[in-house]
From TrEMBL:
Pfam families: Aldose_epim
Keywords: Carbohydrate metabolism, Isomerase
Cross-referenced PANTHER family: ALDOSE 1-EPIMERASE, ALDOSE-1-EPIMERASE
Gene3D superfamilies: 2.70.98.10
Biological process, per Gene Ontology: galactose catabolic process via UDP-galactose, Leloir pathway; glucose metabolic process
Family (UniProt): Belongs to the aldose epimerase family.
Protein name from the UniProt record: Galactose mutarotase
Natural source organism: Psychromarinibacter sediminicola
GO molecular function, one term: aldose 1-epimerase activity
């Protein structure tokens, strides 16, 4: 496995780029943010994910691209969490009143430690001290990335804590299966019969309702073409279940070229984000800047804003409990 220096953060930390490969699939992994920076499949002349060769991009508006998000991904209403009757005040880093992606403790702004590596795998580790990000518990997180036949990325996430604390993690890769400016014409299928409506297009907070997808634009059960925003903003959680379960396929993305990605996860939710923000002034993996809707994000996680909604699956991790997420991406050519 190739291990090279990718760059240096503004704080002077060295960021490594780890090249993993097996068979036809290769993945470039950054220690900054545990980012899947580049994904390549033999015979496909373009990167399958949004990434950049510029370190500056990952300390700016591309920070979430390919990153592992946590310690609590997505938004938390009013930047407060109650655990066992005690209220914790979090950083108000979203619209000045809510929390998003963990605030100052956010994974995608941290450099992870390499704890194991080989030609087809790498394991990274990050620790957060009690009170960091406003949340309780000395917490340890590990992320194992493996390339498995046939043409599959497996990500295994584990967490430990010494005090009750909320945990919700997600990989935030954007996927693009055609060599085209946008993902218009890609077909997305998701095995979800419910979704969590949000309050508006600005705050993007779940209302607490759990709604049937039937008759809505969030019904992807039979597969639907993506349309570059023509149906309105998509940044919603689709409900795959009510709890963590054994690994199973949940989503399928197919490009017009016939290239197909099957996504499997243990998690009960999938946040689908349409990528409208991707018009960014940084060089992409294939040498050009991305445009809005260049790719779509499919983020396996627990349902967002769970601490605010008791009817959502609980994300509180307690000392001694096992916490493990497994998510896979498998690529298939016609």
């Amino acid at each position: 496995m190739a291990d090279t220096v990718f760059g240096t953060t503004a704080a002077g930390e060295t960021v490594h780029r780890l090249m993993l490969g097996s068979g036809e699939l290769s993945v470039a992994l950054l220690t900054h943010g545990a980012v899947m920076q580049d994904v390549r499949l033999a015979g496909v002349p373009h990167s399958l994910t949004v990434g950049s060769p510029e370190m500056a991009a990952y300390e700016d508006k591309m920070a979430s691209c390919g990153a592992l998000m946590g310690p609590v991904v997505n938004r938390i209403t009013d930047a407060t969490v109650e655990i066992d009757g005690q209220t914790y005040e979090l950083e108000k880093n979203f619209l000045g009143k809510h929390t998003i992606h963990g605030g100052a403790a956010a994974f995608h702004h941290r450099v992870w430690e390499i704890v194991d590596q080989g030609p087809d795998h790498a394991e990274l580790r990050l620790t957060l001290a009690d009170g960091e990000g406003g949340l309780p518990g000395n917490r340890a997180f590990t992320a194992l990335f493996e390339i498995r036949p046939p043409s599959t990325i497996r990500m295994t996430l584990r967490t430990e804590t010494d005090a009750p604390t909320p945990v919700n993690l997600a990989n935030h890769s954007y996927w693009r299966l055609d060599d085209a400016p946008t993902v218009k014409g890609h077909v997305l299928q998701v095995a979800a019969d419910r979704y969590t409506p949000r309050n508006d297009d600005t705050e993007l907070l779940p209302t607490g309702e759990i709604a049937d997808v039937t008759g809505t634009r969030f019904d992807f059960r039979q597969g639907r073409e993506l349309v570059d925003g023509a149906e309105g903003l998509i940044d919603n959680n689709l409900c795959l279940g009510d709890r963590r379960v054994p690994l199973r396929p949940v989503a399928w993305l197919t490009g017009q070229s016939g290239l197909r990605m099957e996504m499997a996860t243990t998690e009960p939710g999938l946040q689908v984000f349409d990528g409208h923000i991707l018009g960014l002034p940084f060089m992409g993996n294939d040498g050009a800047e991305y445009v809005p809707y260049a790719a779509v994000a499919l983020e396996a996680q627990f349902w967002p804003d769970a601490p605010t909604h008791p009817n959502f699956p609980d994300i509180t991790l307690r000392p001694g409990e096992d916490w493990e997420q497994i998510t896979e991406w498998r690529f298939l050519k016609e």
